[in-house]
Amino acid sequence: MIHLIVGNTGSGKTTYSNQLKKETKGVVFSIDKWNNTLFLKDKTETDGLQWFLERIERSESIILDLILQLKESKTDAILDLGLSKFEHREKFRIFAIDNAIEVKLHFLDIPKSTRRKRVLNRNIEKGQTFEFEVTEADFNFMETWFETPSKDELEKGVHVRL
Length: 162
Fold this sequence. Notes:
The protein is of the alpha/beta class.
């Protein structure tokens, strides 16, 4: 199974993914970890959104190959990849259908004020799920970037509300 973990910045996607990993014995793919480990040290001040999107696309091509390997061993893939846009989520749903893999969307529907507080605390505490600082500008941008899952997307999914 492929689990699509969806929620805006600070909704707890990585924490939720790690809990789901314990329940399913699945493998978590966290894009923040991949970006921090593979790319952020090379980022310059002039590199913007397109720079990130290109690297995310490259990472996801490897992740798709690994998901197929996990399917062979009957191991769930837990995708903590942001999945902020319908089109991005659809890419993984189509991949799942094309490869006869069950897919489930998990939407973490957390109020903005709670998420903002979490992000500010994470920036200060730099705890287990911290990979890089999220600025107020980054947080505000993601508020405009995120597309809430539709009723159709949520039909057989999990809707977590706080």
